[in-house]
Amino acid sequence: MILITMPKPDVTIYKQQDPQLSHIYGFTDFHLITREDGGIFMFYNDQDELLFVGKARKLRPRIKKHFEDSVSVMKDHREEVAKIEVCLVSSPVHREIYETYIINELKAKYNVDKVMYK
């Protein structure tokens, strides 16, 4: 048996109610997320329900792409995202394992690939 422990978030950013600064869907703190490092990210709604899990070699550009891209799985659900958690994971193999594990363990609502619980 393999024991996998969920990594603790290195960065958590929250949607602002009435953002005064430039924002993307209410998020003003993208600068807190590393631009150069890899890891996994999780989108949650305001009830702390996991909406989506993803991985990236470069986190900030990949996360922002989910809010701008017309082909993102999240394109119709962007307004639901209230919190973004980011875990730095340097190994591509570990990112793959964590992503698959979290999707299935926490039953991410909008992930379609790597789902084994349906």
Question: Measured on Cα atoms, how large is the radius of gyration?
Answer: 14 Å
Quick one: how many beta strands? 4
The SSE order reads: EEEHEH
Q: Which structural category fits the helices and strands?
A: alpha+beta
Largest sheet: 4 strands, antiparallel
What portion of residues belong to β-strands? 15-25%
Q: What does the oligomeric state look like here?
A: single chain
Strand order of the largest sheet: 1-4-2-3
Cα-to-Cα separation, first versus last residue: 22 Å
Count of individual helical segments: 2
Q: What coarse outline follows from CA principal-axis ratios? A: globular
Mean pLDDT: 94
Which percent bin holds the helix content?
10-25%
Low-confidence runs (pLDDT<50, min 5 residues)?
none
Would you write up a description of this structure?
The chain has 118 residues and is of the alpha+beta class. Helix content is 20%, strand content 19%. The protein has two helices and four strands, in the order βββαβα. The protein has a four-stranded antiparallel β-sheet with strand order 1-4-2-3. It is globular and about 50 Å long.
